[in-house]
Each structure stands twice: as C-alpha cells, then as structure tokens.
Fold each of these.
Amino acid sequence: MLYKDRSKPVPERVEHLLGLMTLEEKAGQLVQPFGWQTYEHNDGEIQLTDSFKEQVQSGGIGSLYGVLRADPWTGVTLETGLSPREGAEAVNEIQRYAIENSRLGIPILIGEECSHGHMAIGATVFPVPLSLGSTWNVELYREMCRAVARETRSQGGAVTYSPVLDVVRDPRWGRTEECFGEDAYLIGEMAVASVEGLQGERLDGEDSVAATLKHFVGYGSSEGGRNAGPVHMGRRELLEVDLLPFRKAVEAGAASIMPAYNEIDGVPCTTNEELLDGVLRGEWGFDGMVITDCGAIDMLASGHDVAEDGRDAAIQAIRAGIDMEMSGVMFGKHLVEAVRSGQLEEDVLNQAVRRVLTLKFRLGLFEQPYADPVRAEQVIGSTEHVELARQLASEGIVLLKNEGGALPLSADAGKIAVIGPNADVGYNQLGDYTSPQPRSKVTTVLGGIRSKLAGTPERVLYAPGCRINGDSREGFDVALSCAEQADTVVMVVGGSSARDFGEGTIDLRTGASKVTGNAQSDMDCGEGIDRMNLSLSGVQLELIQEIHKLGKPLVVVYINGRPIAEPWIDENADAILEAWYPGQEGGHAVADILFGDVNPSGRLTISVPKHVGQIPVYYHGKRSRGKRYLEDDSQPRYPFGYGLSYTAFNYSNLTVESDTIDTDGTTKVSVEVTNVGDRAGSEVVQMYISDIASTVTRPAKELKGFRKVFLQPGETQTVEFQVGSEQLQYIGRDYKPVVEPGEFRVHVGKNVNDTLSANLFVREG
C-alpha cells in the first residue's frame, strides 16, 4: 500500500489513502468521541468497550479526546484511573484494535488537555498560565512545554489542546487563570515558545505533540465576563490585539487550532468563514487542522440559534472550515447522509479528511502508533520536571507589597501562624484542568513552611479559620488563638478552582480533612465559574480583619485564579504575595520567597483594580477612555508589569541609537539597569511604545519588548531592544498594517507606569 510507504511524500500518501476510503470511513476520521468511555479498568486490566469496537468496525474513529484525562467530569479517580504505565498500555490496546480491526488500519489521533501539565494521573502539575505569564521567562516556559510534550507523548498522546491565547479584558471571567494575561504582545511571545516547546524540531519525534491554539478568537472579551458570551469588538481591534498571538503562533508552525464558543458581531466563531478561511487559511497560510471545542456545533442550533437543526449546524461548520468535531456527535450523526442527500458536497468532506490524515502522517502515527510503557513510567512526574515546576512557581509569584521590610522572614523569627482556607488544601492551589492527586504529591504553603523549619516544628502553628465560600465562622476562635501565640501571621487566602474530587471538606476547628454526606464545594473560579465581583469569597476578609486586631505582623498570600480587589488588605497588610495557582510545588515556592531563599521576580501580566467598578482596567486602553470616576480615578491598584523585589533596581542612560529612522528602518534602544540593593535578583525590563499622533486612535502605551535579567548587588547591565516596523506599526484605516511618519515615544522601565522616556522620529522612507 502506497500510503504505508514512509519514503513517499505526505501529500501523495494522503491522496492515495483518501482514494481508498468509503464515505463512512471519511466521516469517521472527523469525529472525536470521549476517550475515557472506550475502555473499562478493573483490577489492573484494560477491557475495550463493545461500543468502541463497533464504531471502529463500522467506519472508524479519527480521534479520541481525553483517553488519559482524569477528573470529576470523566469520573476517573485515583482509585479507578490509570498509572503512567497503564495509560500507555491502554492507548496501545486502543490503537492495536483500531489498526487491526479496521479495513485500512488508520491509527487514532489521541488528544489530551495540557495547559499546565498533562491532565493524567501521575503527570507533573505546573503553575497555571496566569502564573506562567507572570514569570516573564519565555525560555523557562519553552522548557516546561518540552517537559509536558515528553510526558504526554510517552503515553501515546499526540495532540494537546493548548496553548490558550485569549487576551483577558474582564478578570471576572472564570477562565482568566488559563490565560497569560491582558497583553497581546506578551501572549504572542509565550505562544511562539509554546509551539516550539510542544512540537519540537519535528512532529514525529518521541518528545513532540501537536499544539492546538485556542480559543480562536476574542474569547477573553465576552460580554460581562460571562463564559462564551457575545463579543462586541471592531475589526481593527480584533486584527491588532486578539488575532496577534494566534498569527505569531501560526507563523511558528502550530499544527492545529480550535475556534472559540463565542460569536463576534453576530457570527459564531465555529462558522466564521471570514476568520477560518479568509484570515487563518487565506492570509496566514495555515495548513493545519481545525477542531471544534466540545459541543460547539450543538450550540449553533441550540444557543446561537443560527442553524435549524443538528444537520444544518454540521453542514455550516464543515463548510466554514471545521475539520474535526470534539465529541463527534453532530458530524458522526449527519455528515454521511448530508453527502448522500446532496446537501453537502463530497469535495468539502474530502478537504477536511485530508487535513486530519496529513496531521497523522506528520506525527508519524502510521509508523509508530504505540507508546512505550516503560518510558512513560520513567518520564512522567520525573524529578527533573518537579524541579522545573518549583522554579516556574517561584518566578511567577509577585510581591505586591512589603511595608517596612516585613519580608523576607528570618529563619529564627519566633513562631509563625499559618492561617487560612488555602494554607493546607492542595487542590486549591492547582487550578482547573487538573487530574486527581495523592496528597503526598502536592506541597501546600503550610507544608512548605514546615519543611523550612523542619528542625523546630513547634514554631509552626496552623488553623484554617474558614472556608473559601460560605459564612461559617466556627473556625475563627481557633484561628485567633493560633495567631495570638505567634510572632508573625501568614494568611493564605484567595480562591479555588478545585472541582469536586470527593475529598469531602475540612474541619474548621482542627484543620483535618473530613468526608461528609454534604461536602461543601469551595470552587469560585475556573471554566464556567464567572463572578460579579473580585473580592474574596465568603468570610475570608472578616477573618483577616479579626486577626489584624491582634497587632501581629501580617503577611497575606493570595492563591487564586483571577486578580483580587480588596482595598482593606492593600492598606493594612504588611506584605502581600500574589501566588496565583502555583501548581504541585507551590508551597515550596511560596516558602522559598517568604524566607528569602528566592528573591521574588514575578511581575503582573494583568492589572489589579482598586474596585470591580473600574473594569475594564487593562493598561492598553485608548487615550480617549476618560480619566476618572466621581469616586476615584481610573488607575488600577497595581499596574501591568508591576512587582517588587528584595533588592532595588535603578534605570539610567536610556538611549535611542538613531532617533530618526525611515518607516522601514530600525534602531536600537538601550538602557542601563543597576542592582543598587544588597541582594542578587532578577528584574523584568519592559519597553513600551507610544504613537504621539496617528490617523486612528491608539493606546497610550503598548508593550513591545521585555527582558528578564539577573544582577548581582552593584552589577550594571546594558539591556538592548530593536525597534522597527513590527514595534511601530498598527492596523490603519484600510485594515492593513502601516507605519506612519511622525513622532513616537519609547518608554523603558519597571512597569507601565514607571519608565524612562525618549523620543523617536519616523520619516517617510
């Protein structure tokens, strides 16, 4: 068979195979059922289900979603789930049956969730993307993506549904944690690193998986911050902001893309031909696979109401450029009959099948469809990956306040009371899209502090005080008693994206876990969990206020998936750490920073408002947006790019090498950064551009470059940036990129509101 000959070019193999396929086999390649429903796991044995076998024999299955996924939605638990070795063996059983019991022996594409680690039992849980963005460390993130690809492919997963490239405009949105932040340029840099890290030098490598860019596009700008709500956005903003990270990732070679659930100006992204065919495939030349989000085709007929029924929805989607349906229900049910009845042209079906088969050939699945169970056991959750998770967590933590040098804590500074609902609940620091974890695998903040003071355990006191949600104050007395005995209080509060793993709840008087018949969920963030405000849930603020009355030094550690707006804490806490959801090593990372073993270097990638009423408060708003409200100005509490250190950095000698360039010219911008403190540390040097006068309105400042540099005390480093058309252009009146002659201002500094400035003039060239 020619299509099995690896020496032949991929397009030739694809066309030969396509010519052999029946209509049912073609449609089968475009469906993606839920993978965890294809097998039963009992006493260590994997048994494939009859329904899976029947589907393979009746036309085939193109892909499976989440064979290795474990969480409450799948119903896969630590007890019923697959170990790293068993997961690889299960994938092999699935592939073997599909290849040996289908007419053409086409392997199945195994797709998995991997936004901050492979979502399988035993895999390394890295910090959530909001934390990863806060590292401003593109190289380190690329290294993480290589680790995720290594773990996923070792079990047979060949495609991942990441990275998430949504630009956040309203942090009330529950999926804020899944995003890198509010700035398209920074997201674009992370997007390129993700594609390079996940896909490696070649897709058929043993450590490579296909990246799927999502959610295309505008998903982070939904009405009211409500998940999948309508998006009201002009074409220029769409091209200039939200599409930018996707374009850069496509240019980097991304193999797959996923349209968003939302509509833009009345057109659902799932059927937006202008975006999928015009921009993505036409202007950008994307030749990869397009897969829907789960249930997105159903929404066309039941939600968006732009289709009469399921068949109409399926036809609209595939004509618009959809190649595969996650869940597979609509395509599997309607495509064959739609072609036979003349409602859908077979050429349209063939084009989608070509793209799916092309990806399978590029991944090398026809040559090597099977995983290596021994390698999976060695690679997944390796010591190297765990160490990487700790470093990423450390670099993503942002020091928001440090009054009077409250931090770092001294290793012999008396007793420390660790109080709060997030102090010792591991799931609360992992974020959404996380598999169940044994308690021993996750180090909480309490665990991290106890590890630091292992020689004097009596110095660490603990009380949960309250839950994330609910109004119970039954734990207040114990928490206050605990705080009274301490010299310093570390309050660990925030939110939770932990879904109900059946772990019960926590005893507020003893801090012990307990299982009850009515366990209370603390989830207040994550997919589908959107909020009306940004304050702490439940009675957490009240607990902090009561403990503050004791007059003890108060350090607040936030563990959460979206910014928190609590003016009282900003004004009264001695120190504040924003840790986001820091992953399985988060407790160690927080303790490293609390005790000064690591100098904080995280910087905000999302503005933190003073009050929810300021939203939208993202930094790149237009100059015309207005200055203030009656009650207060429009500035955030903590601006984009902000973050403190245990040392101090001074900026000087900002220089523009050629302060006049042509519209197609370039120049070099340099600045000297000096560590003027007494500790070594890393600084994130940020460059912003202002277009002083433009044909269409522009943001006051836009991030166009950044460097993370490590400096010893007294050390000075010259940091350089290139400025050219990429940094100076915008989408003009004709919706094309343009660099206009005129005056620009270059800003370089610590954050968007703390910079040195220099002028740059652009002349017609």
Note: Residues 53 and 104 are 15 Å apart (CA to CA).
Amino acid sequence: MSAAESAARPTVESATTPRELADGYVYALADHDTMVSSSLGLRPHDDRVPDFSPRAQTDKDELSRQVLAALDRTESGAGELAPTERRCADLLRGRLTADLAMSEAGEHLRLVRNIFGPADRIRTLLLMMPTGTAEDWATIARRMAGTPESLRSYRQALDEGRRRQLFAAPRQVSTMIGQLDDWLAGDRSWFHTFVDGAPADLDATVTAQLAAAADAAAGAVAELRSYLADEYLPAAAGTPDAVGEQRYRVCAATAVGGSVDPAEAYAWGWQEYQRIWAQMRELAEQILPGADPVAAMRHLDTAGAAVEGVEQVQQWLQQMMDTAIAKLDGTHFDIAEPIKTVEARIAPPGSAAAPYYSRPSLDFSRPGRTWLPTLGRTRFPLYNLISTWYHEGVPGHHLQLAQWTYQAPELSVFQTTIGSSSGITEGWALYAERLADELGFLDTEARIGYLDGQLFRAMRVIVDIGMHLQLPIPDDSPIAPGQTWTPELAVEFFRAHSGEPEEYIDSEIIRYLGWPGQAISYKLGERAWLAGRAAARRAHAERGEDFDLKRWHRDALSLGAVRLDELTDTLAEL
C-alpha cells in the first residue's frame, strides 16, 4: 500500500458518515487480521500469519467497541440518513454487536471445527497468495515459516478455554485430528507438496527458504495434532455436542445475519422437507420406475452421466461456469467484464467434504474461485454436481460476491465484503439454483440432484436446531418419531433421504455440531430472497408495470450486504 493510497482511505477517527466509518473499520481490522488484509488484497506481499491468541481477540473487541461508539456519534449528528447510509449503519451495528456477543460467550476459545477453522485459515492464506514472481514465492516462504507462531497462538486460545472450562466437543476434536493426519499423510506433507509448485529456476536462497518453511509448518501441524490428541481431547471428555438454546441463538445471529426464532424455523424446515420429498418421489418414478428417490440416485451414481478423472472434472466445471456466463449475460444479468473470470479448483486434501467458493480480491488480481473436494474419488456423477456449481459459481456465489466487489466504490468495502453473512450469501446461492431450474437449465437427472440439494438444506434446518436444542423428532417422521434428536439419528435421517455419499453426510453432521446456526442460513436466506422477489412482482403489478427480472437482479446484487431481518422488505422496494 502506497502512502498516497493509505492517506486516501477513511479511518474510524476521520469518518463523518456510516459508510466511511464502516470502511475505516475494514482497514483498521486489516491491521489486526491478516485474513482480512489478504482476502481483500489490501497489502501486496503481506507475510503475516493469523493471530488467534486471546490478546488478539481482545484487540479486535476493543476496535468493535470503538467503532460502535463512533457510529452512535455519527448517527446522532447526521439527521435523517439516506437509505444507503441507513442500511450500512444497521449492517455495521448488527455485525459488531453479534461479534462481541460471540466473544463474550468465549466461542473463540473453543473453536474446533472441520471447516473454515483456525488451522484451515493458514492454508487458505497460502492458497490466496500470488505465485507469479520470485518475490511472490519469497513472501510465501516467509508466511509459511510463521505457521508455528500462528498455531502457538491458537493453542493459547484453546488453553485459555480450558482454564475457563470452555471446551469443544470431543467429536469435533477427533475429526480435526483426522484432518491434520491427512495434511501430513505420505512422504511429504501438504506444505511440501504446495512448495513443489514453485518454479524450478527460483533463486537457490528462496528455494531453501521454502523447503525450510515447509519443514517448520509440517512440524508445527504435527505438534498441534499431538496436543489435541494427548492433552486437549482427554480434558474435553464429557463436553456435549449440543450447545443449548442460549449459545445457539448467539451463534446463529452471527451466521444468519439477523435474529432467529428456532421454534418457527424448525417447524418451517419440517414443512419444506415434506414438500421437497414429495417432489423427489415423483421425479424418481421418471428416472427409475418403482424406485424411491435414494434408489434412483444410487442408480444415477453408476448409470447416470459422469466425468472420469480429477483433472477432467475440474475442466468440466470450468466449462460449465464459462457457458453459464455466456448464456446469462445480457439476458438475465448484466455481467461486467472483470466478473467474467472465475476459476474451478480442486480443494486440498484434508478439507471438509462440502464444495466452497473464495471471493476475488478487491482489484480482481485474484479471481473468484470454486473448490471441489474429491474425497479420494476419481469418478464424478453429474446429477449432483450441476446445481451445486450453479450455487458455488454462476449465477450463485461468484456472480453475487464478484458483483459486490465491482460495486464496492459505489457502496462501501464493508457492505461488499466482510459485512456479509451466510444468510444473504447462501440464500442468494440457493436462489441461484432455483433460478437455473426456472430457466430450464436442468434436465431430469440434474433436477433430482437439485431437489436433493434443496432437501438437504431443509433437513439441515431440522437437524441443526434439533440437535443443538435437543428437540423431539416430529410424530410423522419416518425416523425415530418422538425421540430426541442426536447426531446418530441425524445421520440416519440423512441417509434415508439423501443421495450424498456416507462420508459427505458424516462430515456435514460434524460441521453442524461445530458451527451452530450456520447450516440454517441457507434455507432461511433463500426464503427471504424469494419473498422479496414475490413482493417486488406484486408491487409492480399493483402499479400496472411490467416486472423486469434482469433489472431486479441488477438492483438486488448492487445493494451489497443487508441484514437478513431487512432483506425481504428491501428487495420488495426494487
């Protein structure tokens, strides 16, 4: 960052509007958190590593309180705020308040989960980094060499949690131990494999630094694995999987991006499950007469369309996204040139089972990317991949989050990046899958995969809330009616209904238990997006106007992040 660029950026102290304050917060947070800095591309050749220590969290909390106090002053002296400023102010206040509630509950002191956890962030940082020059690789060597320091700070947080008797459940810990084993499997760790990608003509000094950094990183991961197995896991014995309603509400508010009524969401999720399952039964009869949906999908696993080979499926997914951009641009969306680049990648070993997306940098020098975990497979049935890549890529996460990046100068960096929540982003991605179906992009095989994904997200609402609040299973359930939800019954429920492989289902249950409230954000978010579109259609009809879906998409994606509590009403006005 040049001195001129630094001087031009708003600060918390100089801000006079909510948007300026929100952006001042982003840049201040980037000073504390290298994940923010690197994910947004704010500091070229940033070689810092994440600091997970209790002290680092205290510093972030103090920043949040400082910004909230500044927001109070800004709002009190601003009079009536413009809609864009009001949305930004509400988003900023809601996000920081939820973050502080999470910290007060000590969630950062027992953060062990199988996806997007602290250890994962180190690898994520390395995968974000540019690799085109010798200087890039020298930066990678310095950052990777800091892995032991970063993992020590993580242990400090876990040790403080132990001191306060705040533990992750043993199921989470054992899963993470297995993932770290995958990182270290074979003759060469993931870190060594990563640096093997460095150019052969690198300076010998940088090559030696990379080798030493990989050795240090692998050693630090092995130490963390031993710590978890030998010290933390025995101490955590007896910690329940369920977090209870109080913790659940705190965690869900952060993930969803708004308030949650668990009882209402649970009942609605059950209705959605029944509605979608009925549709799947009809479609299964078309695919394999006499078969139920699971049998029809098992049939497609072997007899349906598929791609053979890891490299081949990566190429296939890339072509699918490129084709989607060409078909949608100018018809249902206006896609700016920088957004037309998106990359399909294969996720590194030791990842969770679910595909995911990573945002572009603010200057688009690092494009948006979709990631497919292979779980050791080399054959990939397409029926359950197609709608997933409409979700992860285009018109899903990539179209939304890259459009936000493109709109950042007109909105704020906060509204278009770290201010977002799973509710608005995963909700859009599920809406995007539904849109692909509405537009006729899905054949019969792909449609049952789409409905399987929809059913899976509805069942997430049921089992996530059901397991954590230990609710009774509805009396009309085909699985254990009247019994209390447990992880084992949740697995049985999914296996009786889903076409996903067993290892994926097992991984997902671990994910829900380790990330309370995140799993429900998909369907609750989609519900808000669909309600907003329906309300906008009605409003146009009442005014005697045609509803222009492409224009609505443009305006909706140009809002940036909005609190889920306000999303439907905001979309209805477009």
Note: The chain has two domains: 3-241, 252-521.
Amino acid sequence: MRKNTLLAATILCGSLALSTAPVSAQAQVLSESPSTSIGGKGPHLPHPPGWYNAPSPDAPQAPGVNAADIPPGPPAEPSEATPAVAQQSSNPAHDDWPAYGRDSNATRSSPLDQITPDNVSQLKEAFVYHTGSKPGPGEANKWAAETTPIKVGDGLYMCSAMNDMMRLDPATGKEVWHFKAGVKYESIPYTAACKAVTYYTSSTVPEGQPCHTRILEGTLDMRLIEVDAETGKRCEAFGYHGEVNLMKGMGESVPGFVSMTAPVPVVNGAIITNQEVLDGQRRWAPSGVIRGYDAETGRFLWAWDVNRPNEHGEPKEGEHYSRGTPNSWAAMTGDNELGLVYVPTGNSAADYYSAMRSDKENAVSSAVVALDVKTGTPRWVFQTVHKDVWDYDIGSQATLTDLPAEDGSGTVPALLMPTKRGQTFVLDRRTGKPILPVEERPAPLDTDVPGDPRSPTQPWSVGMPRLGFPPLKESDMWGMTPIDELYCRLLFKKSKYEGEFTAPEISHPWIEYPGYNGGSDWGSIAYDAKSGILIANWNNTPMRDQLVHRTKADALGLLPIDSPHFNPKAGGAEGNGAMADSPYGILVTPFWNKFTGLMCNKPPYGMITAIDMHAHKVLWQHPLGSARANGPWGLPTYMPLTIGTPNNGGPLITASGLVFVGATTDNLIHAFDIKTGKEVWNAVLPGGGQATPMTYEYKGKQYVAIMAGGHHFMMTPVSDALVVYALPDKN
C-alpha cells in the first residue's frame, strides 16, 4: 500500500477546508468609485427584466430589520462617555475569566495551576449544560455557537448561538437565570453564533442596586442589550428598555444582511460596536461603520465612517452611513490607558474586485485601526494586505502585552496581530509602528481584470516565524490513489498560481493560498507574558477561485440577499458570491478532488505552534487534529492518527504549563504540555469543539470549559452542550 493511501484514508472531507468564520466585505459595481457622500450611491448595471431586482441602496429598511421596533429618535451629535470605574477584566481575580480573552489584553492565559501535565489525564466531566439552542423542525442547520463563557465571582455567564444569555452556578452548571433574546431564525446571517458576553460594572449605580453589574451583548439582529448580572432582568435605563437599535442609520437592508457575533469591548466607559456584513452580496452593502455608545445609558457617542471621516455624528434624516465600506467582524481589543480601541478590519464590499473602492477605503482595509474612544478618530493604521482581493480580512483579536525593548532600555507596549496569511505583525500599540521588522516585498501584477491593477508590493513580517508552509508546487499534489494525484496535478497545471498574492482572473481559475481560512482566524492566539510563549493553532487550506462576468453570475443564480430572487443555495457568505452591482460574480471552491472530497494539497491541513517571543523562534510545531471523525467521502475512519485537520477556535494557556484547544474536526478537546508540545490528554465532545475553551477556579477547584456546539460549515456535529471538566475530588 502506498504511504499516502493510508494517510488519505484518514483525511477529512475536503469541503471542511472552507472558512468557518463569517467574513467581512461584500460585492461591487462598475469601474467607478462610490460616492464619498454619506449616501455612498453608485451606478446600477442593467439586468434581464424581472430577474435582478435588488433594492436601491437608498431604499428604506425592510420590515423586521429593526427587530425590537425601537423608536429611532432624532439623529444624535457626537458626545463623550460617562466616566467609568475600573473593570474586572483590567485586573482579573486569580480565579476568574472575566472577558472573552480572559483579560482586557486578550491573552487567553490563566494563572491557575491546579490541573498540571502530570494530573491532567485524570480530568472528568464535572457537568454539562444545555443552552437549548439548536436547529428547529424545518430549519436548515446554520448553527456554530463559537461561545466562550466568562466567569466573575460566583457567576458563570454565557450566550447561546441565538443570543439568549444565561448565568450558571460555576460548580454545578445549575441555571440561575436565562434571558430570552427573541432572535428570529430569519436574522441568522451566515452562522448562528455568539462568541461571548461582556461584564460591566457601573460607575453611577451603587453596589447592591439593580444593574450595578451588568451583562451585555450585541445580537444577530443588531441590538445592543444590557441586563442585570444578578437577576438577568433588563437594565431599563439603558437605551430603550435595555436595548439599543444598531440598525439606526444603516439604510437599506434585510434580516440576516448585517449582524454581530463578537463580544463588544467597553473602553473608558464607551461600548465599541462593529458588525459582520454578509460577504459576497453587493458592492453597495450596508456600512462597516464603527460606533461608540455610553455603557451606562446606551447614548450614542460617535461614529467612524470611512468615507465621511470628519463627520462623527449619526446620519441626518433620510441619509445613511456610507455603504460598502470595510467592515470589522472580529473581536476588538481596548487599551484604557491609551484611550484606544484596536479594530481589525476586512476589505470593502466585493472581496475579489477592488476597482470601485475609494482611496479612503483602500487605506484602511485588511488593517489594524486604532481609534480614539473619545472621538472615534483614527490615531494610526497598519495595513496587513494592500488592495485585498483575496478575502484576507483580519478575523483574529489583537493581543496586547509589553515586550522588552531592543536596546534593553525597558519595555515597549506591544500589539500582536495574527492574520489569515500566517503573518503575525508585532506593533507598538501607541503608534502602529512595527517593533519587529516588516518588509514590503514585490507581489505579482499580472491580471486580466480590466481597470483593477494590483499593489506592486505586500507587507511581510520577517521578524516573526510564519504560521504557514512554502508556496505550493506540483509535487505537493496528493491523492488516495495515483489517479487522484494525477487529477490534482492537472487541476494545479490548469490554474494560475504565482504565489500568495496570485492576482484574480476571469479567463481561468487561480489558486488562493493559504486561502481565506488559512493562518489564524477568529480563534486568535494565547500568550503567556511570564514565559514569553505564544501558542497559535492555524490552517493550511488553499482555495480555487474564478471571476465570472455578470451575465454568467446571473445565469448561475448568484443574487444578493436583498434581491427578491435570492437563492441561498446558489451562493452565500462562503463560496460563490453575487458581488452584485459590480461587473463580476465570484466562484470559490476548495482546491480539492470533487470525487473523493479530499484536498489536493498534501496534509497536514491544521497545525499548532509554540513560539518563543523573546527569541522569536519556534519552540515546537506539529499537526493538530486526528482522523477519528474524518475521511474520504466525508466518512469517519475512527483511526486515531494525528494528521492535522482544519480548525476554528483558539487556545488557552495555564500557569501549570498546559495548553487546551478544541477547534479540530475530530470532535475532541486536546491538552498539550507547553514545554514539549506532547499531547497529554484529550476527550470526546458531544459536538464539534469549534470554540475557544476557558478555565476558572471556584471554591478551591479548577475547571476547564468548552462549548461543544459544532459548526455547520465544518460539518461537525451540532450540539447545545457546554462541557465542563475538573479533577476528581480527593475523597
């Protein structure tokens, strides 16, 4: 038997290599830039009568977009937040996990050390909690909870995939309260997901009074909701009976077009909101505007709208935020001392065609943007991809730390920004200047797309080890049999490929590698500041793409979500997209053997890496994910071979020297010794572990929790189970 025949039998269905993250940009129009006026109006292409009838960008919002029927009120002018008190996440208690990334620096690193590499094999289920959120009768499966609970004091708080919020007893999982958010199925965008809730301590409500401590979230139907952390009842003084309508000022839309899946940060009393705008739809999609709201009252503070940078108020009556601008769907990170929030952005609407983007959009797309939380004004911008037409939007949350200065004079406040490219940029978070070297390297320019030239250079983080492999070559093609391998070699030879920045083509397919689910995505990284060790799990999943003229896109049924003829089965946030209002649609498929469902590039497809941030060198690296639940034709092999599967969800580090991570398509949670990389424990989950685990201590006992919600696109089993582990009691 050929060596790779046995290995092939262990690999997952190739379609799993697609991104599971709701991406960022959208679709486009003609070769003109959008108006930089607040309306962002653009030209419309002619279509066959009665076929393409998507609404005008200036049309009013469809019924149901303002989910709670919150009265709009007059447009608000910019203002400042109510002065805040110190929050739990700024200096977490030893036994708590008070924020999505544990602390306000998003380190995903815990000081707990009760569970160690020596005793982790004894972990047992302490309890399982069911959120009650799963597809109902007749509902297509769009579920992927992606939830990380938070723990403060004697409360374990979390959200369901459909934005219900709940408080649990940390020792037993008994439900203390359950807030019903009332999100409807129609409001699910690409994925029903809620990554985390946010814990907030009021500066105006005295301790012991309702809503002194609060739990808040942004929802799939674009509401900002605050409830009392003790009772789960609405904070009536916040917004309109506890809610703020985030569709205000967004203009034309329909349910599911715009949503929130990431936790909102609170920085110096300001709640900062971003939103996912469904990919692949229209050039004139709803805005990627970033906004600030008062954490005490829900009052509007400011807006950062890319195409109207000097206007920070809400749009005037009859107007809306500029459309099609780069949006941010990833978790943001705040710095209270510097008064900044770090916004990871995507590209403008129409991921694969950039001719219609304004200069202002090109300057801030696929970048880290540091906004002043008092005014919404950008302080600095660092771009990770120039004129992105590969969907290399930033899905990860930035991690903050202090690194030793190169001249030995002390420390530098740093920001670590992992990307889908596998490039990790290390920046001075005060200025956005690279701390470790970044080079602008030549990039391919050849393209047959008229009027859409590529950037001659792209940035490379040469001071950091890359989370990726060398460029593809024909000898990397792979298959279950020699015939399969030959098929993949032929696909490779028929495709345009000139490296990572191969320019899009109309005449024939091009290979996008590392792909829009390559490198690090929404799971982000973990960093232990004491040891200087960074842990990252990442993907190695190329795609094969092709632009098609508008007439062919129409013939294929590629229409946007707000068209009366929209067919979600024809294309959506991942895969084929309408890119309506533009000259082209996009066809996106995994680079795979469509007959076996196996990827054409040789495994591994998922990896985990430990990097010494003091020496900037890899400590260890190996494939992540086994073949037990994966195989050709989507059939599980039940073979416990570590071959490296696509993964989504991040890692956590404990002070005892353990790394916990789910993420893989083998439906396991894994534990590794951080010194050696050896896997020292795993457990089978009731659903896919596409979420980031967390750990906490309660009454002297350490627990490890992971949401085993599964993921519809990763094709892992969907569940509503939060699984919590602990060591057995000594008695």
Note: The chain has a mean pLDDT of 91.
